[in-house]
């Protein structure tokens, strides 16, 4: 008798738990409101199912973040939800919301790293905006045509664009972002002995020639020291730009930053800063804010040379003898 009571009690508890779970689930997946009210909803890059669910609940798109996490992970659909912008409504139930999310965003995130040429940037957008075939070819042609005089002024950042975005709209946004980001540097730009084009050109070299943010102002000071005494900038990145501009013209896939040889140093190009003194005529890449800031506010230094060792650490020198010693010590040459 006692055993029967225990079994009955256990069954009642199990049934109650099942009923409670079903009621929780039923309530958790219900729409928040009955009236249609679509809104833009952005999922940042790197968000987990829990974070997406929490944000959906905070924005009153769904009732239960836990129910969202449970359903999306149990069905494996959480792996099919990507970063970007969506149009969602609180009148949809949770299952309908998840269904919309797995169909893909109406706008997509595209990240453009610092120090890329425009030919590299356009491929980032073609891939990020999922363009292919003729659409990709048209986008590429329009982008490269529109940016012929904008190298250096296409600000590296993470952008959100609709799939159907045109190349012109992308270029306009990147150019406006450059203007916005450099507003804080305007006083320094106005007080500089360099023109804006020279500052951006210098910043583009700093971007390619340095590896860490804290070394950029020092590299800027070294390059300016060389300019001041009439010494060639001798920046490998400018030669790389010149070589790729010759060898990669009209190509989609190419080594845009090739390893240079001693023979390359005699290349007859205004971008060859081993052969021609002064700054190149235009930027060689699109610098980020820290490089632009370094070009405007360089660090005073007595050094004239720098090199990076195999681990990426930078080493400075005031004289050629010191620099050659660093070459032997850190590069084994």
Measured on Cα atoms, how large is the radius of gyration?
Answer: 28 Å
Shape field: elongated
Q: Into how many domains do the coordinates divide?
A: 3
Helix content: 40-55%
Major pleated sheet: 2 strands, antiparallel
Query: Tally of extended strands?
Result: 6
| SSE order | HEHHEHEHHEHHHHHHEEH
Distance between the termini: 91 Å
Strand content bin:
5-15%
Mean pLDDT: 91
So how many helices? Answer: 13
Written overview of the protein:
By secondary structure, the protein is mostly helical. It folds into 3 domains: 30-105, Dna Ligase, domain 1, CATH 3.30.1490; 108-180; 194-301, no CATH class. The chain contains 13 helices and 6 strands. The protein has a two-stranded antiparallel ribbon with strand order 1-2. Strands 3-4 form a two-stranded antiparallel ribbon. A two-stranded antiparallel sheet has the order 5-6. It is elongated and about 95 Å long.
Structure in a nutshell:
The chain has 333 residues and is mainly alpha-helical.
